[in-house]
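step 4 of 6: structure.
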Amino acid sequence: MKNVRKITSSKTFPPLVALFGILLFNVFLNPGFLTITIVEGHFFGQLIDILNRAVPIMILGIGMTLVIATGGTDLSCGALLALSGAVAVSLIRGKSTILNPETETPFIIVILATLAVASLCGLWNGFLVAKIGIQPIVATLILMTAGRGIAQLITGARNLTTGYPPFSVIGQGWFLMFPVPVFIAAGVFLLVWFLVRKTAFGLFVEAVGINASAARYSGINATLVIMTVYMISGFCAGVAGLIYASNIMCADATNAGLNFELDAILAVVLGGTSMMGGRIYLGGTVIGALIIMALTKSIYAFDVAPESALVVKAAAVVMVVLIQSPLFQNFRGRVRACLPFGRRAGEGA
Amino acid sequence: MKLKALLVFVLAAVLVSACSVAFAADRKIVVGFAQIGAESDWRVANTNSIRTACEEAGFDLRFVDGQQRQENQIKALRDFITQGVDVIGFSPVVESGWDEVIAEINEAGIPLILLDRTTDIAGDNYFVTWIGSDFLEEGRKAGRWLVEYMQKTGRGRDEINIVELQGTVGSGPAIDRKKGFEEVIKDYPNLRITQSQTGDFTRDLGKTVMESFLKRGERIDVLYAHNDDMALGAIQAIKEAGLKPAEDVIVIGVDAVKGAFEAMLAGEMNVTVECSPLLGPQFVEAVQAIMAGKELPKITYSIEYVYSQEVTRRVVDGRQF
């Protein structure tokens, strides 16, 4: 019983409930939604799609979780996603097209250059926030607009298409019957999780988020912590940008990652991380991203008229956020107290 | 003395006004253009065509990219009014919500030329002329091509399931391309649209939505996409589902961008209905006619073709977009 309580009182429990709620809704009203078959030697089905398509938001969200934990926001990550796609495809492209799949730049250079550009942009955000002291929303707003502009400059505002086969592996490949992006997301998650939970870095981030001055007085280099966090967010945008561009084999500077920063923030919030900062729930963010994509895919599966799709999505999000609200949590606590295995008197929330 | 001073003053005044008259005669025609954005290759080619044509004609072009947002475009239009431009060119991102700002333009007496898209404002007094493609006719062309193709391949009586990728919700081309297509296929009860969803004219959503269509478990014979970019994204989804695009699923696009020709040459797409973006020269002509005080017809269509898979490499290489 104690384990049950431990699970249900965990911060990631409400978002998990919401995710299962959406899936369950589909099971009853939309049979076939959960069917997974094997096509061309890999899994094939809606669930796999949800997992696969949630990856860009998930990776942006992981970076965003750290930024939000320091009490900031990174509005530029959607534009940086577009920028890194533009960098990658323009480096590969040379003269290659769908009909002529070749590259002029070694592939490893393409990847490293893209990630370096994205990380540097992130570092710039961190510099503005930590060193210059500009408010995070304003500081990252600069690259949110300029980043997309630079991306359009690189691509000449056209959809640069490429046909280079190794590049397609990143966003469309399969490994052990699962999509490659899922493994990349898992890699990024583990990397950040290790950094946050197995080193002191996570503690520093949370300390800075709760009270930057207090953290500074206790000997934490808050400036460095904040700059690192924004750089990680930039790096994440770079990885997500590679996946996004590879998925459509095209650098779409105008539409790639449009409004993704808001989806990433939503994923973080749905995952139970407070916008006030000071807490990191990486697992929650992953579930948050899955909730968003599960919702989107359900809307397609139910063939909701495009005119009303956004309303349906908004209504569902409101419900999920309500489930997590303190009011609902209190109510849940009271219900649990009435149950035979409910908490004993004096036990804390 | 006083008289002398007055004389000098009058002389100076005459000189200044003479100068300003001379400048006015030499003054460039100022054209404000509120573009939608750079959302597709088509739009970029359209922008380039307008820019080049205006430059060649020696206009002072004030070009504003609305980044697909109505509020940006409204702001641009208001700026044009304050700047007092001679003519405004405008491609509205969506059809509705322009009443107020267009009333302001009319009040300011600035001639308005609509390009490529339309608004839902009743009547045609609020603009001088509309230049662009007939989206309704594009939809009809796509429908007619499908009917002919089915008859040609001996499937004229078969039950055909069509899925549709719509453009941006509420945009002119999305509404008319849907209507035109439906108009033609409604006479053939065996042709049925089974699923329809918006892909927002982008590749990524074209792929994501098509992927969902394919998982519904219904047979899909035809994909009708409101633009080529969505079709190109959907082609990838079709391939990932283990099907052959253009064979298992017939792929119809609109716009005729270069990527569509490449896909057709690779045997992955069947047809694209042209929607020519090179409206610049026609736009310049209209501006010059307005400045010369000439009457203009309300509607000017651009000449457009249907390109099926049997296109030659020559056509592809000759494309500017």
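step 5 of 6: annotate
 - The CA atoms of residues 166 and 198 of chain B lie 4 Å apart.
 - Chain B touches chain A through 41 residues (CB under 8 Å).
step 6 of 6: archive
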